[in-house]
Every structure is written in C-alpha cells, then in structure tokens.
Amino acid sequence: MRSIILRSQLKAGLFINGLNNLVKCSNYKLRRNQSSTHGPLSILSEDEQFFKETVSKFSQEQITPLIKKMDHEHKIDDELVKKLFENGFMGIEIDQEYGGSGSSFMSSTLTVEEIAKVDPSVSVLVDLQNTLGNNVMIKMGNKEQKEKYLPRLAQNTVSSFCLSEPSSGSDAFALKTTAKKDGDHYYINGTKMWISNSDIAGIFYVFANVDISKGHKGVTCFIVERDQEGFSVAKKEDKLGMKASGTCVLHFDNVKVHKDNIIGKIGEGYKIAINFLNEGRIGIGAQMVGIAQGCLDHTIPYTLERKQFGSSIFDFQSMQHQIARAVTEVETARLMVYNTARLVEADLPFIKEAAMAKYYASEVAGKVTSVCIDWMGGVGFTTDYPQEKFYRDCKVGPIYEGTTNMQLTTIAKFIKKEYEK
Where is the Acyl-CoA oxidase/dehydrogenase middle domain (predicted)? Predict the structure, then answer.
C-alpha cells in the first residue's frame, strides 16, 4: 500500500493531522487557501506538508543506512529504487488513474529538497524522473502513449532524458544524432553523453535530428526502450560527486523506432527540451537547497558540542556571524525556489526566475558546504563525516541542466527586455 495519501483522500478529510470531520477540514482549507494566496511562501498545504514529512521520514530510515555503500559502489540500491516507486515518490504528478500520486509540482520540489538533505545522488533520480521524464509524457504524450507509459513510469520504470552529446553541451542543439525515415519507422544513429539515470532506466527520451538541413528545427523527440536492438548503454562515468547516480554514454546503431513513438510533433524536439529543462532547473535549485541545508544540519550541532578555550565553537561571535550568514543565504535560495515552483503551478512566466533560482542555489550550496568543512576543522576533511560528500555532490550544480554562465545569460536577456520597454 502506498504511504502517500492522495489528494482525493485529502479532500475527503482523511489526512492524519487531527482534522476529525469535514467541517473542521473545510475551515482549515479556507484558512490555508487564504494563506497560499496572500501569505508566506513557506506556508504549505496539508498535501505538501504531508509529502515533506513523509519523504523526510523515509529518507532518514531507508536512505541513510545505504549512503556510504551506494557512494562506494557507484550505484543506487535496487531495493531502494523499488521502495521509491512503492511510496509514490517516482510518480508524484502522474494522475491516480495511471497509478501515480496525483499531487503537484510543488510536492515534487519539496520531495527533491528533502531527499537531497540526506543523499543528493538519490535526489537526482527522483528529480529527473518527476520534473523531466514524467512531465514530458504528461504534457506532451498523446492518449495512447500516456496509457502505455505512464503506469510504468509511476510504478516500476525509470526514465532518462537524452539530449547532450560529446560535441553538444551548452549548445544543446548542435547535436549530431540523426533519425532517418523509412516508411513508418525511423532509424536512429549517434551517441549521447552525460545521460543521468541511464544505468537503470527502461524508457529513454532521445532527441535526434530528422532533417539536418533544418538545423534545430529538425530535432525530434523519440521514445526508445532499453531492450531495442542497436541501442546500448556504455560504462558509467567515474565522477567527483553524485557517484551513486549513474551517468553513462549511450550508443544508437540503426535503432528502429516506430513513428508512433514520436513525442509531440516532428521538429518540435527543441521546444520540448527547452520548456522542460526550464522546469527541471527548479528541481536542481531544490536539490542544491537540500544539499546546503543537509550539510548545515550535520554541522551546526557539532559547533554547539565542540569546545575550545572553555566555550562551544558556536558561542564565538565570529562563528555566529558566519553561521547566521550561511543560514540566511540558504533560506533566500529556498524562497527563490519555492516562488518559482508557485509560478509554474499558477501557469505564470517563470523562465527568468528558474534561471535565478538554479544559479543562486548552486552558488549557495558550494559556499555553504565549503564553510561547513572549515567549521568542522580537521575531521571535516575526512570521509568519516558527511560534509565532504555534500561538498563533492554540489559541485555539479553550476554545470548540469544549464551552466551558471548560461543561466546568467538568460537572466540578462530578460533584464534587457524589461528595461527596453
């Protein structure tokens, strides 16, 4: 049985928060709706709060014991992946009719943040599954595709977003993977690189060009399954951080794909990639906030316990100022991420805000994890404490799903437009 209580149940007054009848539940919802409209960004609905608390408990009990093992083996534990599906964390926004949790984008954001506080590698899996893989199918898939793939994505199958190539990074649409039409099928040839979740994925969204002469307007998104002939997953990259999160090279050698496995329309792949990567950056922002907060949660108690010159390290004014500054910056990043998630849910423009949140949260995570190691002293430089792993894991923040420079360029474009009016 799923541990996540679905929204239909919440609306029926069954949420375990002490609301014993529908009258009390209705009054609470009225107050909640007023708060969500005009109140603090950090005020969560009962659905969101329950997700947050459930994920936090799950992460502490189920993920914590496996962190060192997974980091050493460079692989997310198979049983843990099953538990993530069983608890509804891999299909958060997928409708209940397809076996998903039927919840919100904000719940996905909170889930990524909470898991990242414990193990950022696992948060990569959950983030990309929800903000990219599932949302592509939910918003761009046709009826037949949804019926075929959404139950699998919600219940047992990891997805992977295949855009980057050896010669195509920030210039994402300089890709060389091609898809040649032959009757009702396309034959895909090429290589993809830096593809997250690809070590365990069963469904791949592959971006290939059906007409090189059209440039990025020939890019089309195809659904490819792992067992298709001609498709192979190469060995994992040996990375600085996020070691348990598989990042592999993919090879396509005349992979035969039926036209029914095209997502959206021919030539719309670049729009799909841009739109969903913009949303995905909010997930990365949440992940970076979680990393910074998780590192602080492990470090501040140490500063309260560690004695020097007869006082706790925390009691020295210089330490208090450093800690206060770090906590303030993390909270600022969190509010930027939450605000952007709310903009998405309200169907309002959010691209500039997503770029700002991803950029700033990545910067804060790098800064905070670094000073946490400083505060720990010599033990912070060892692998006996988790600070060094948080430090390694957050380094990818300014790199993937759009580098910091790309985010700054995006922000600058919006600023220019605003002031040219």
Answer: 160-255
